[in-house]
What does this fold into?
Amino acid sequence: IQRLQTSILFIMMVLIFAYTLYQNKCKVYQVTNPGLLGLIGFVLGLLAALLGVGGGPLNVMILMMFLGMGIKVAALSSIFIIFFAQLSNITMSLFAGKLNDFPYVYLLIIIISGISGGMIGSKLSALFTESKTKRLYQGILVSLILLNLINLFG
It folds into this structure.
């Protein structure tokens, strides 16, 4: 099943990267219907949970394509989506006792480091234009594509 998940993730990353390359040729929608917005959120959460990932790159692309957001606003919005989607996952894991074997000191270090990194990243983001942010995003996507290839064939 892990190979299937990695394959799906690889295909998604390639499609997301292709979208960023040809974004100006793609139609942008301004979805405002609450039902459709709920469906989009549900599908994003479902895919993230199914693939065992946060879903950040997919969230960013969907927010840009269906809500007309720029990449900076989409990236920030994606963080909120991931936070609340994963909060429920973490809560369920805690109650199910799935995190009992995980050293909590590691979790604390990761949380503090993540908050610190987010604060620094937020300050650095102000220095980047939309175009530079998009190039950085594309570079990260290429890295994720390569990582998926290594996981599939390495």
